[in-house]
Amino acid sequence: MPRPTARRTAPAEPPSSTGAGGEALEKDARACQYFLPYKLALASEVSRVVEEALEGLNELIAHGFLRGSLPDPDDPSKKVIDTLVESVCACASIRDDQTQMHVVRLLQTVVMSEPCFVHGHSLLFCVRTCFNIYLG
């Protein structure tokens, strides 16, 4: 009796990495439109609201829906990912253990996620925030 062979399927790619470059930019533009409510939630400094926003952003970035490669509409000299990092790092001042854990988890996702490119000042800000949480 022949043994059944296992079927191998290719792993699913994140939505932002499929198709042509123009399609990826269009998807990123649509995702960046939804960043403003998250930014406002992060600025609220209400622990539970901030935690929910951090969880939502973590999922969007981890699954490749939000790359943040486009210029920020409020400050065109920065990318959306840089504004996201600044907003998340500002939440580290909330002295709640769960909130700080969510901050560290999201910063890890942002730095390690392949479609997001965090460099320079934003990367230094991520490391500094994690270090300050560790010391705090």
Automatic annotation (TrEMBL):
Domain Mon2/Sec7/BIG1-like dimerisation and cyclophilin-binding: 32-135
Domain of life: Eukaryota
Region named Disordered: 1-23
InterPro entries referenced in this protein's UniProt entry, alphabetically: DCB_dom (IPR032629)
Protein name: Mon2/Sec7/BIG1-like dimerisation and cyclophilin-binding domain-containing protein
